[in-house]
């Protein structure tokens, strides 16, 4: 993985290792959910969006939950406006995604805040 991501000459970094692990586990979870390539891409965008809200925007847990809700709603509305041709996520998949984020990131929100700002 280090070679693929071109991390061969970097000093070991706990922060980078944690982020690589989180992205890798998220990707594998989405693959296990049998997401299509488009769904997988949207899921990874959501994952990145939430992490950027913590790292760059320093959002609180409540604000980030609201942003996730807004982003998931926009994904559904965009899908509806396009005539339903791109069925990003079913209701069951959307619930599973929210559960994934709650159990993998939001439950440990303070630890991720510390990772980025501690």
From TrEMBL:
What InterPro entries would the database entry show?
CLAMP
Q: Which UniProt keyword terms apply here? A: Coiled coil
Q: Which residues form a coiled coil?
A: 51-78
Top-rank lineage group of the source organism: Eukaryota
Protein name, as recorded: CBCO1 protein
**What organism is listed for this UniProt entry?**
Sakesphorus luctuosus
